[in-house]
Design goal:
The complex is a heterodimer of chains A (431) and B (270). Chain A has 431 residues and is of the alpha/beta class. Helix content of chain A is 40%, strand content 13%. In chain A, helix 3 packs parallel to helix 14, helix 6 packs parallel to helix 7 and helix 17 packs antiparallel against helix 19. The chains are: A alpha/beta (431), B alpha/beta (270).
Chain lengths: 431, 270
Amino acid sequence: MPAPKTYQLDTLSLHAGQQPDSEFGARAQPIYFTTSYVFPDTDHAASLFNMERAGHVYSRISNPTNAALEERIAALEGGVGAIATASGQAALHLAIVTLMNAGSHIVASGSLYGGSHNLLAYTLPRFGIETTFVKPRDVDAFRAAIRPETRLLFGETLGNPGLDVLDIPRVSEVAHEAGLPLLVDSTFTTPYLMRPFDLGADLIFHSATKFLGGHGVAIGGLLVDGGKFDWDKSGNFPTLSEPYEGFHGMVFTEESTTAAFLLRARREGIRDFGACMSPINAFQIMQGMETLGPRMQRHMDNTRAVVAFLDKHDAVEQVVYPELPSHPDHELARKLLPNGCGAVFSFELKGGRSAGRKFIESLKVFSHLANVGDAKSLVIHPATTTHYRMDDAALRAAGITEGTVRLSIGIESAEDLLEDLSRALRASQKA
Amino acid sequence: MSLEVNGHKTYAYTGNHAFDACLPTVIFIHGAANDHSVWALQSRYFAYHGHNVLAVDLPGHGKSAGDALNDVATFADWVKALMDAVGIEQAAIVGHSMGSLIGLETAARYPAIVTRLALVGTAIPMPVTDALLETSAANDHAAYEMINVFAHSPRAQIGGNRLPGAWMMGNSMRLMERSANGVLHADFTACNSYRGGLDAAKKTKCPVLLILGQRDLMTPPRAAKEAAASFSNARTVMLDGTGHSLMSEQPDAVLDALIDFLRPKNVTAA
């Protein structure tokens, strides 16, 4: 007998986590723009504070609009729950501080978003948390870098800037052999292209600012728990499996078999560090998520058209995209990312920095800015912007050349995008 | 609390409280392929409101060792052994689904030790479909998938959880997936083969509360009707729009019904 069906991604994107408003029947998700919530009586209040009843106390810790968003991303990822944070960086920080203390260690892919790299390489060491960076394609390097004090393995589903495809099944195996969880940043892939929990990841975070929102109007992060990792069995996580004096001696793995991590993250991390999401942002991100499927498909259709165009263009040295046979992770991408490898990629322009500058300045549809994952197409030339202080050698070490251009392909008419690129490429070669 | 019952390490959630012989005790018993955590909110409330709480992990479930039992009568004897191990003479029992059958049989076999009996999401008898028996026997993941859909109301399958940020369908699936091979089938065998429920209902002397979900497909309310009429002292609370996962779908409504039923002024020995 076939198992009964549950709802598919496009349906969950629109509905998961939200019921029509019980007071007025509003179909859209109401924005609960409130700091706090009236208690019916003192006993009810005490029960809410002590986690004997479900509900909201103060919007730093939880909010009904945020909760709907949290449920929605958990449903889309196939997790047990989520926490909305002020930004993607806040989500990464929340994951780390929930799992470890000073003296702990992280093994991370070296191909990370610059903000994540800064946090791990420069900021966390000030608080006693060290990170060893390894090449994301070298699974054995992850294993070799694990120390007794390691508490987390971390990588991006698609690395930055070379779109290294993280071999989640193998890296998670390495993590689990050592009794450690694997955290992945799935910002570039979203649940439409990949569900990392199905491949072995234990925790996921998103910069919801990017493709989940899609509109580029709201900063936010989402931290999702897959609910599979056995924190008790691991023995490496006393923050979850031993009494916590900050909440009446609560042992989180006793309170919740599947969501102990989220429980501590909310009861300590969000409570004490306070990097919560505004309900306005939660509403805006949910509005974007309603169209995640159709948008991501259009992102992919346009990206494939642009990649094919650039790959054959005389002014282009190389296109770095895993769907191309020339990419080192082409076969892995076919296996893990059959629906596409995202809409952010780089290509090498002939002619160096001056050609790059001319190319950027000649574009009309693409916006020149430091973001990705917008519905609008975006472009940046790292050598003259984000990495302008670096000399050629430093650029090469970062996997960037003077001719590297990063595109984030939007959902405009593909024909207009190709025309815009064609004109700018011609101009760049006259620079 | 970790203790030994019938030679096996057994876990019971107590709300982080030491046992107090002066307080009444409530034993919470989970259903098939579940553990104590399905009672998280309700058990914590009673632990902080004048009760000893033992939200158990049945043998072979959660943090408790031993083989899963496949017979409700044996489970009932295990509950008696648990109480003996803790050193309590009487307790109220709250059981969900398979746990409700275990509570019922315990009350019938050992009437002197059960002060009150709350049956949450119950059917008496509790037949299990051939599809679920066959897939669970094969340790086929399809069994969990079927349960997850049948055990949640249409509303719960969309969400809107009262517990902030928690996705009910995901939690339920992950909890079941933690079961060792054979556990779900042993549980279903226990439910399916239990034929003494109506007789047990007639023998039960203590006050009984049935908390039923109006949209429950696993244990439809009509399947508890005859048993409800067989108890000498029973009442029913029906939760509108609620499926079989009553404690997560309607945590406050279940808790309020239990508070009303178990509050100290009502607790008297049978």
